[in-house]
């Protein structure tokens, strides 16, 4: 029968993967309606004008030390009507995550896929509120497949040729 010593308990504890969410917060937010109030008149006068919406997505991770990482998901939503910008909404949704004991591939997957998946609903809510409070019709971002985006990024980094494009 093997004896369990404090040293064995400590070694076993370090080998166990740990993932903890410590904090979710808005790091930066902005909303601009550069052509207001004229854009509201344009919308009211021309029911045929279809808004065009473009989403730019980004993320970054910062090692804070002691197995803590800040992951920031950036969403920039630009709405144009014709040649004019109706609004520009941007949010940097952040979280502090404790990530320890994972192999390099799993660690990269947590940072590149799991964390953004967790942050996205919060960022989507902030964008939705900004647009509505800016005087525009409600806008709800569709879900984003961060697993597929991360897999595409990994294929490109590995030199796997042209990765398939994602439609969102």
Automatic annotation (TrEMBL):
Cell location: Cytoplasm
Pfam families in UniProt: SecB
Record has Chaperone as a keyword: yes
Keywords, comma-separated and alphabetical: Chaperone, Cytoplasm, Protein transport, Translocation, Transport
InterPro entries (UniProt xref): SecB, SecB-like_sf
UniProt superkingdom: Bacteria
SUPFAM superfamilies named among the record's database cross-references: SecB-like (SSF54611)
HAMAP family, alphabetized: SecB
Subunit structure, as described in the record: Homotetramer, a dimer of dimers. One homotetramer interacts with 1 SecA dimer.
Similarity comment: family membership: Belongs to the SecB family.
Reported function: One of the proteins required for the normal export of preproteins out of the cell cytoplasm. It is a molecular chaperone that binds to a subset of precursor proteins, maintaining them in a translocation-competent state. It also specifically binds to its receptor SecA.
Protein name: Protein-export protein SecB
